[in-house]
Write the structure tokens for this entry.
Amino acid sequence: MIEEMRRGALANLPVGASVAAYGSVLGMLAAQKGLTWVQLLAMNLSVFAGSAQFVMVEMWAPPLPVVEMTLAVLIINMRYLLIGASLNPLFQGKSLAHKAGIIHLVTDENWAVTMAAYRCKGATTGFLLGGGICLCSIWSMGTLLGHQLGALVVRPERFALDFAFIAVFTALTVSMWRGKGDIAPWAAAAVLAVVAERWLPGKWYIVVGGIGGALVPAVREIFIARENARNPLSNRSRSDPMTKETK
């Protein structure tokens, strides 16, 4: 377990630089909104979801809109339902306590790194946990550093620090590419997200794009299963070299 945690932490270090960079942007924004470093640290440890925290900070104004803020965070983090489902092979046979102790530290970044490692040479929940601890530590340090600089840097976007958020997810997306089979779900997710962002309020486009993209391969598998059930011999002849004619 310790060795797997160490391996997971090391594997996530390359994305740690970007995590720290856009974490510092959040810290600057939080300082300008009047959050104390204690409040920011509490947010890091309890929420630990970058996009949701950015929305919380943007909405931070007395009196705090607690209900609206909570709903916004729930909508944005609904994608973790899909992420959690994709981690089922790693958590297979594990206790509920084991799952609950690790799932809070799952982020988009260490999820992507873990899934890539799982497909290549295998990964465990220890790998996932090590990556989560690594990124949570880096994220917290980045946000707190940005908080200290918040009074000095009025417009962080002038230094392109906000682009780090886009850059890291672009790199993670490229690393998840598995071939032509990914074209349809990725395209569906992109189109649905753009349409939803145009016509729906708030952050619903994240949920719509994620669910829409996930449904494409699910529906495809259903059709394949039905076709196999309808024509078992023809499918066997395509896959079994012993049934092919010899020329």
